[in-house]
């Protein structure tokens, strides 16, 4: 691949709540927090222990025959397994019982009790395991949204996507590579909704995705016991370097009524953003009444207006290139 600029995500050893809130959180950039206590889970969560304590509660899992899971083309299957059987299979390379093939891979993103309405909460779905995991108390209890189990076979890669809430991803066991892209690189990621169409980020098809090289790659490898702060809207792509167990905690940092009430996953756009996107569709529909030449002209004017009104010029090189700084305004 033509070289994409790559930077390492900074690692902060032994940061406490005050240090996080003062030095890291306001930067709105990813950060690895090392040396914090996640509780007894780091030592205890072996395959056997997880199976015993998690029991045979049924879980819906992703089963894949290939390393890159692709949500847009759904190249994996959803299957239901008892939790203990799932953990056993996810930890092994070859399976005697399988759905698709003997070396299939497994991934769990745990869900709430009522999957359409309720966010995942480990203390409700897996109380016997939740007591081993200390959720970092970096935010107010009423900001808590969900705690989600992330359990993956070795080698499995989750597509690049963003979430709308702030996130602490705790890697409890196993190593995991995480690649992140800034929200300001959104136009280089070929988005379809909240997901990037660029599936193979290590060797992308540049004929299809030529601008992908312009996105700056932020990369880290999480070790057991690490926490990764993923600010809302930062794109992330994970690859399990070993069988591993993680938990991610989402919390709200916008006023509660900014979030879609029917969003158990924490990935629906905030209410004002959805309204703005609907308004854009209406505006485009209105332009459809004009000949192409006029649509092109007014489309360009709209882009300029949107850039002037919304971009933070100090943050984006591509913005600075496309707009003279004198034209950058802050919202009234
Ligand atoms: O750790 C993973 O496998 C995925 C994490 C993720 O997508 C998240 O924390 O939002």
Automatic annotation (TrEMBL):
What residue stretches are annotated with the JmjC domain? 106-268
Q: Which UniProt keywords apply?
A: Dioxygenase, Iron, Metal-binding, Oxidoreductase, tRNA processing
Q: Which GO terms describe its molecular function?
A: metal ion binding; tRNA binding; tRNA(Phe) (7-(3-amino-3-carboxypropyl)wyosine37-C2)-hydroxylase activity
Q: What is its pathway?
A: tRNA modification; wybutosine-tRNA(Phe) biosynthesis
Kindly list the cofactors needed.
Fe(2+)
Q: Which reaction does it catalyse?
A: 7-[(3S)-3-amino-3-carboxypropyl]wyosine(37) in tRNA(Phe) + 2-oxoglutarate + O2 = 7-(2-hydroxy-3-amino-3-carboxypropyl)wyosine(37) in tRNA(Phe) + succinate + CO2
Please name the InterPro entries in this protein's record. Answer: Cupin_8, JmjC_dom
Q: Kindly indicate whether the keyword Transmembrane belongs to this entry.
A: no
> Per its UniProt entry, which superkingdom is the organism in?
Eukaryota
State the EC number(s). 1.14.11.42
Gene Ontology biological process terms from the UniProt entry:
wybutosine biosynthetic process
* Subunit comment: Homodimer.
Task performed by this protein: tRNA hydroxylase that acts as a component of the wybutosine biosynthesis pathway. Wybutosine is a hyper modified guanosine with a tricyclic base found at the 3'-position adjacent to the anticodon of eukaryotic phenylalanine tRNA. Catalyzes the hydroxylation of 7-(a-amino-a-carboxypropyl)wyosine (yW-72) into undermodified hydroxywybutosine (OHyW*). OHyW* being further transformed into hydroxywybutosine (OHyW) by LCMT2/TYW4. OHyW is a derivative of wybutosine found in higher eukaryotes.
Family (UniProt)? Belongs to the TYW5 family.
Protein name, please? tRNA wybutosine-synthesizing protein 5
Q: Which organism is it from?
A: Eleginops maclovinus
Its ancestry begins with: Eukaryota, Metazoa, Chordata, Craniata, Vertebrata
């Amino acid at each position: 691949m033509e070289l994409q600029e790559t930077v390492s995500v900074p690692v902060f050893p032994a940061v406490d709540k005050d240090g996080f809130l003062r030095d890291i959180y306001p930067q709105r950039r990813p950060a690895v927090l090392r040396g914090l206590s996640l509780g007894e889970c780091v030592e205890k969560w072996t395959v056997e222990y997880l199976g015993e304590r998690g029991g045979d509660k049924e879980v819906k899992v992703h089963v894949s025959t290939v390393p890159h899971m692709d949500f847009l083309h759904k190249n994996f299957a959803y299957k239901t397994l008892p939790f203990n059987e799932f953990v056993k299979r996810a930890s092994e390379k070859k399976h005697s019982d399988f759905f698709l093939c003997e070396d299939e891979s497994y991934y769990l993103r745990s869900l709430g009790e009522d999957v359409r309405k309720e966010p995942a909460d480990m203390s409700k779905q897996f109380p016997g395991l939740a007591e081993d995991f200390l959720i970092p108390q970096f935010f107010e209890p009423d900001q808590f949204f969900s705690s989600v189990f992330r359990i993956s076979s070795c080698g499995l890669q989750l597509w690049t996507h963003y979430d709308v809430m702030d996130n602490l991803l705790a890697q409890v066991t196993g190593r995991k590579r995480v690649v992140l892209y800034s929200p300001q690189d959104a136009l280089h990621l070929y988005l379809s909704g909240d997901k990037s169409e660029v599936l193979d980020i290590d060797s992308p098809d540049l004929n299809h995705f030529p601008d992908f090289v312009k996105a700056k790659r932020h990369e880290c490898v999480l070790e057991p016991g690490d926490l990764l702060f993923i600010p809302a809207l930062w794109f992330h792509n994970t690859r399990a370097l070993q069988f591993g167990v993680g938990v991610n905690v989402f919390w709200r940092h916008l006023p509660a009524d900014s979030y879609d009430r029917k969003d158990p996953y924490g990935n629906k756009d905030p209410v004002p953003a959805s309204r703005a996107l609907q308004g854009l569709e209406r505006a485009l529909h209105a332009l459809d009444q004009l000949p192409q030449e006029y649509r092109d002209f007014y489309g360009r004017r709209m882009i300029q207006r949107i850039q002037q009104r919304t971009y933070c010029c100090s943050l984006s090189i591509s913005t600075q290139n496309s707009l003279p700084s004198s034209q950058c305004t802050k919202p009234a």
